UniProtKB/TrEMBL annotation:
Record-annotated FHA domain positions: 52-101
Gene3D superfamilies: 2.60.200.20
InterPro entries named in the record: FHA_dom (IPR000253), SMAD_FHA_dom_sf (IPR008984)
Protein name: FHA domain-containing protein
């Protein structure tokens, strides 16, 4: 009489259904990548949620101490394709890797953002 097959891991511990399902890829759930802004003096600003606003206005997520920053200057947004930056019609503009940001641009680890006179480096994990 054959015994039923019971998968196990090294060491002989049985593997349950939940263990098997947890290793299967989730096709419908986009991978969330954590984004951190690093200032020119090394301060780390964790970006929380799927959208993050940089500006002087009281409800912005990050409010740099600069008179050149517009009330609502730059938007960072996360979607299925990753993180993106978009200028929000600011007076001084946003720069992405030393080029003016004229349309939504995808961000990569190590990219540089210039928000008026504030320099930020992108760190993705």
């Amino acid at each position: 009489m054959a015994l039923p097959f019971r998968p196990s891991v090294p060491g002989g511990q049985p593997v349950g259904r939940a263990d098997i399902l947890s290793t299967m890829p989730q096709a419908h759930a986009p991978k969330y990548v954590a984004l951190t802004l690093v200032t020119s003096v090394g301060q780390e600003i964790p970006v929380t949620g799927t959208s993050f606003t940089i500006g002087r206005q009281f409800d912005c997520d990050y409010r740099p101490d600069s008179v050149q920053i517009s009330r609502r200057h730059t938007l960072l947004i996360h979607g299925p394709e990753g993180w993106f930056a978009e200028d929000m019609g600011s007076a001084m503009g946003t720069v992405h890797n030393q080029r003016p940001l004229t349309a939504r641009q995808r961000l990569a680890d190590g990219d540089e953002l210039g928000v008026a006179d504030v320099k930020l480096r992108i760190r993705l994990r």
